[in-house]
Design a protein that fits this description.
0% of the residues lie in helices and 41% in strands. The protein is mainly β. Strands 2-3-4-8 form a four-stranded antiparallel beta sheet, with no helix packed on it. A three-stranded antiparallel beta sheet has the order 1-10-9, with no helix packed on it. A three-stranded antiparallel beta sheet has the order 5-6-7, with no helix packed on it. The protein has no helices and ten strands.
Length: 102
Amino acid sequence: MPSVMLCRVEEVACGTALRVEPEGLPPLAVFNLDGEFFVMDDTCSHGEASLCDGEIEDGQIDCPWHHARFCIRTGKALTFPAVVPQKTYAVSVEAGEVRIEL
C-alpha cells in the first residue's frame, strides 16, 4: 500500500500537534500522544478552524473556534456543535518519519 511522508518524529513534541499540507491531500493534523502518532484532517468538520490551534487534553482535541471536541484516536465528534467525525488515517513510523497509508 502506498504511503506519504508527513514529517519527522522530532517535529511533533509529545502532547502537541503539527499542521502539514502534503501535495494532493487536505491539510492534516499530526498528533503525538505519549509517543504514539495519529493523523486526521486538520480543518474542523463544523467550521473552517485549524484543529492544530486547539487544546489537547485526555486524547481529545478542542476546536479553537466553537469548542467542539474530537477523539484524536478515532476522529469521533464528542461534543456539539460538531456532529460529523474527522477523517483519520492509518499511521506508521518508519526510519524516524511519520507516514500515512493511502
